[in-house]
């Protein structure tokens, strides 16, 4: 079976970046009970540009730090509702008309406006629990604080597992593909758990939509840990959606050891992962082969 080549984005030029493991000083972040937040401007740029970790809270993905921010009209109207008289972070923004696409027609007769933004909102980089744990304990470039206390590896594992019941399985798959060189991002937009990019979102379209299926050692489904139906009809429907979006569906079977009730970070090596690539069979393709 031949694998499809990742689709390169138009006018994109790949830029090599220095690995995060070579940082002289660890980046500080804090756990807000849901995700991990980085507020330092240099830290945000470093974490995102050297591996595309996290997502900005105001920008579409990459944190944009500049004097005159460009936002859509709907974003500006939303910020007007959050205006505060005591806000000290008053800044000018450039407001452009709403549009779901940025094709050539959008820029015809475009009339941006200067407006004053008095909302207390400021750009932050939000890391998922698996991203933060990977950066802190595998890359070792991130410090995570909770209420002014630096979290240890065991503290993070416990807190993140309590916050998200799927943390262990999510992290196992995340680490698996990151170590293979893929850039791993959330896949909820395409009905999956993750999507995989070659090099990063600025350079290539996502190649695979990943769904996680936790199974016993005999490959029977572990019912108490399932997050979706794996019925044939559902898989066919999800696969057709992936085809429409120009991606392929990848099922990752996480083989859960029967002797382990609680899995720690050190036990991840005992978990095996099967990758199953899903493709729609047609008679024409079979005859051509």
TrEMBL record:
* Segments forming domain tRNA intron endonuclease catalytic: 167-231
Enumerate the Gene Ontology biological process terms.
Answer: tRNA-type intron splice site recognition and cleavage
Looking up InterPro entries in the UniProt record yields: tRNA_endonuc-like_dom_sf, tRNA_intron_Endo_cat-like_sf, tRNA_intron_Endonuc_cat-like, tRNA_intron_Endonuc_N, tRNA_splic, tRNA_splic_SEN2
CDD domains xrefs: tRNA-intron_lyase_C
Q: Where is the active site?
A: 197, 205, 247
What EC class does the entry list?
A: lyase
The GO terms this record gives for MF are:
nucleic acid binding; tRNA-intron lyase activity
Q: Which UniProt keywords apply?
A: Endonuclease, Hydrolase, Lyase, Nuclease, tRNA processing
User: What's the Enzyme Commission number for this chain?
Assistant: 4.6.1.16
- Pinpoint the tRNA intron endonuclease N-terminal domain residues: 29-157
- Return the GO cellular component terms, semicolon-separated: cytoplasm; tRNA-intron endonuclease complex
Q: Which family does it belong to?
A: Belongs to the tRNA-intron endonuclease family.
Record's function text: Constitutes one of the two catalytic subunit of the tRNA-splicing endonuclease complex, a complex responsible for identification and cleavage of the splice sites in pre-tRNA. It cleaves pre-tRNA at the 5'- and 3'-splice sites to release the intron. The products are an intron and two tRNA half-molecules bearing 2',3'-cyclic phosphate and 5'-OH termini. There are no conserved sequences at the splice sites, but the intron is invariably located at the same site in the gene, placing the splice sites an invariant distance from the constant structural features of the tRNA body.
Among NCBIfam families, the record links this protein to: endA
Q: Which PANTHER family match?
A: TRNA-SPLICING ENDONUCLEASE SUBUNIT SEN2
Query: Can you name this protein?
Result: tRNA-splicing endonuclease subunit Sen2
Organism of origin is Popillia japonica
Q: What is the lineage of its organism?
A: Eukaryota, Metazoa, Ecdysozoa, Arthropoda, Hexapoda
């Amino acid at each position: 079976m031949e694998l499809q080549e990742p689709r390169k984005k138009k006018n994109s030029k790949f830029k090599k970046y220095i690995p995060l493991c070579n940082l002289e000083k660890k980046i500080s972040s804090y756990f807000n009970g849901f995700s991990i937040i980085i507020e330092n401007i240099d830290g945000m740029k470093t974490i995102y540009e050297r591996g595309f970790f996290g997502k900005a809270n105001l920008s579409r993905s990459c944190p944009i730090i500049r004097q005159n921010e460009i936002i859509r009209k709907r974003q500006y109207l939303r910020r007007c509702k959050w205006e505060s008289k005591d806000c000290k972070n008053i800044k000018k923004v450039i407001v452009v008309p709403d549009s779901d696409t940025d094709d050539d027609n959008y820029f015809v007769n475009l009339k941006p406006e200067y407006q004053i933004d008095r909302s207390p909102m400021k750009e932050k980089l939000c890391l998922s629990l698996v991203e933060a744990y990977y950066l802190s304990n595998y890359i070792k470039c991130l410090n995570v604080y909770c209420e002014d206390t630096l979290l240890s590896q065991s503290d993070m594992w416990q807190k993140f597992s309590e916050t998200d019941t799927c943390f262990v399985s999510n992290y196992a798959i995340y680490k698996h593909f990151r170590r293979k060189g893929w850039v791993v991002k959330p896949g909820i937009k395409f009905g999956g758990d993750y999507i995989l990019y070659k090099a990063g979102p600025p350079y290539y379209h996502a190649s695979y939509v990943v769904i996680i299926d936790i199974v016993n050692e005999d490959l029977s489904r572990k019912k108490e840990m399932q997050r979706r139906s794996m019925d044939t009809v559902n898989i066919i429907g999800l696969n057709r959606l992936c085809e429409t979006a120009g991606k392929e569906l990848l099922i990752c079977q996480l083989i859960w050891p029967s002797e382990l009730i609680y899995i720690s970070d050190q036990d991840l090596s005992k978990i095996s992962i099967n990758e199953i690539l899903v493709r729609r069979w047609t008679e024409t393709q079979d005859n051509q082969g």
